[in-house]
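Why should sequence recovery work at all? Because a backbone constrains its sequence more than one might expect. Tight turns favour small or flexible residues, buried strands favour hydrophobic ones, and helices have their own preferences. The token representation captures these environments compactly. In the example below, the structure is given first.
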């Protein structure tokens, strides 16, 4: 609660006219809704909207425009995640496509960037970042798959903007000098042997495609 009488300096506090004027103004102008709006729209990144998130973006040094490498309709053999026969051509040209992120997508990017700035980059920290971003209901983790190389495994299908975030080497958290790849597994439709947590015979197919080499 705001005590307006506590804001009047002592040399004017004894003036009944000034004190009454200030009390009347206080009754007409309540700043508390503005304080609440400032906190919810700007200060609290979990609820910030529009220009509030843009301010966070300037603080964290990352734009709402996300550039993604787009290989276009390029042909590739099975497992490459490129286009099949009659749907793509050989080519090496890669263009950059810019996407203007919605508030929810931008918030995820900002939180990811903030976590990168304060994380130590070890495996428990990176797994904690994934849990913070996706929640306990989504199974995702990192694996060490070689010398100075890790793999982000997602046992669910990422949304397009989530996939874009983790396929951007300038955003994804990892230790310095360590390369990484991403791997999405459709556990509801993928075959796996006993103990894998995947589907049994006649209820799933082999995983289509493999890890994506990002950096």
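From this structural description, the recovered sequence reads:
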């Amino acid at each position: 609660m705001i005590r307006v009488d506590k804001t009047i300096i002592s040399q004017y506090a004894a003036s009944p006219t000034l004190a009454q004027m200030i009390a009347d103004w206080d009754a007409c102008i309540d700043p508390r809704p503005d304080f609440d709006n400032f906190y919810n729209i700007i200060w609290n990144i979990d609820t910030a909207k529009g220009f509030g998130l843009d301010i966070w973006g300037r603080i964290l040094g990352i734009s709402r425009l996300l550039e993604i490498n787009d290989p276009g309709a390029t042909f590739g053999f099975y497992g490459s995640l490129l286009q099949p026969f009659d749907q793509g051509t050989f080519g090496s040209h890669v263009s950059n496509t810019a996407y203007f992120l919605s508030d929810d997508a931008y918030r995820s990017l900002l939180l990811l960037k903030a976590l990168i700035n304060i994380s130590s980059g070890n495996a428990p920290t990176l797994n904690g970042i994934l849990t913070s971003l996706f929640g306990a209901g989504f199974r995702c983790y990192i694996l060490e798959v070689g010398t100075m190389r890790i793999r982000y495994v997602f046992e669910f299908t990422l949304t397009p903007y989530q996939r874009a975030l983790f396929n951007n080497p300038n955003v994804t958290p990892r230790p310095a000098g360590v390369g990484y790849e991403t791997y999405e597994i459709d556990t509801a439709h993928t075959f796996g042997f006993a103990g894998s947590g995947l589907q049994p015979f006649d209820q799933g197919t082999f995983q289509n495609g493999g890890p994506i080499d990002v950096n």
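A few observations help interpret the result. DSSP finds seven helices and six strands in the chain.
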